Amino acid sequence: MKSYSSKDMKRCNHLLGEIEAVYHEIALKFGLSDSTMIILYTICDEGDKCLLKDICRRSGLSKQTVNSALRKLEKEGIVRLEAAGARSKNVCLTEKGKDLAKGTAVRVIEAENEILASWGQEDVEKYLELLEHFLRDLTEKMKEIVP
User: Fold this and answer.
1) Which member of 41, 88, 92, 113 lies 3.0 to 4.6 Å from 49 by CB, making a disulfide possible if both were Cys?
2) How far is residue 23 from each of residues 14, 17, 37, 101, measured CA to CA in Å?
3) CB burial class (10 A; 0-12, 13-18, 19+) of residue 112?
4) Cβ proximity of 23 and 15 under 8 Å
5) For 103-107, which contacts have Cβ atoms below 8 Å and span 24 or more sequence positions?
6) Side-chain half-sphere of 5: how many Cα atoms within 13 Å?
7) Cα-based distances in Å from 102 to 41, 51, 109, 140
8) 97, exposed or middle or buried, with CB in 10 Å at 0-12, 13-18, 19+?
9) C-alpha to C-alpha distance for 16 and 29, rounded to whole angstroms
10) What is the pLDDT of residue 33?
11) What is the pLDDT of residue 56?
């Protein structure tokens, strides 16, 4: 069977896979599951708390995966859930959770910030513009495939 991906798309997919592998490896080294690392990262990206629905939306994890991971984190005393309106919940880091996040997700975020800071603003802007452009075009093409 022939390959359907263009040379450039293969390269893109390879690089995206390699980036995901780096994040997976650091989660393992921290002794965390990927979903726990992603949840901690997403909360830290916002501060010390984040809406449950935003964790699902921003992380790409399914609601079921997020809820399952949160139940475990809640039992471990890492997070607590708080009402945030009639139908929303905030996921808040406990003191134990803040300590865990500082040693894991915050370190990853700081490393990412250092990388982007080392590139220069013009390169960062171009990189982000291209990602946004790809996302817009991908979203539109997927609507054509399945309206």
Assistant:
1) 92
2) 14, 10, 9, 15
3) exposed
4) no
5) 103/30, 104/30, 104/32, 104/37, 104/40, 105/37, 105/40, 105/41, 105/43, 105/44, 106/44
6) 8
7) 10, 20, 10, 38
8) buried
9) 20
10) 97
11) 94
What would the two tokens of residue 51 be?
């809406």
Q: What is the pLDDT of residues 32-91, one digit of tens each?
A: 999 999 999 999 999 889 999 999 999 999 999 999 999 999 999 999 999 888 888 999
Quick one: tokens of 93? 């880091």
Written as one letter, the residue type at 123 is: D
Give the model confidence (pLDDT) of 96-128 as tens digits: 999 999 999 999 999 999 999 999 999 999 999
Q: Which CATH architecture does the domain made up of 7-145 adopt? A: Orthogonal Bundle (1.10)
Contact by Cβ (8 Å): 79, 92: yes
